[in-house]
Design goal:
By secondary structure, the protein is of the alpha+beta class. It has one helix and three strands; from the N terminus they run βαββ.
Length: 67
């Protein structure tokens, strides 16, 4: 039987949403073993002087629990 756990994380990038997702998954994989998927739950941008300053994603990361 396989059992998984889901945790929510937030990641930010000054480049793009895709970069924020990549950074978030990479960072989660440093701490969590057996990461198998990530679902982007929310996206938002921070605006300064009418320009996008940063991209943020909130995502649900799924990892398998070890026996």
């Amino acid at each position: 039987m396989t059992v998984a756990r889901v945790t929510e994380i937030s990641a930010t990038s000054s480049k793009s949403f895709d970069d924020a997702v990549e950074q978030g998954v990479a960072r989660a994989a440093q701490t969590l073993r057996n990461v198998v998927s990530a679902w982007v739950k929310e996206q938002r941008v921070t605006v300064k002087d009418s320009k996008i300053e940063s991209y943020q994603v909130n995502m649900m990361v799924t990892f398998l629990l070890e026996d």
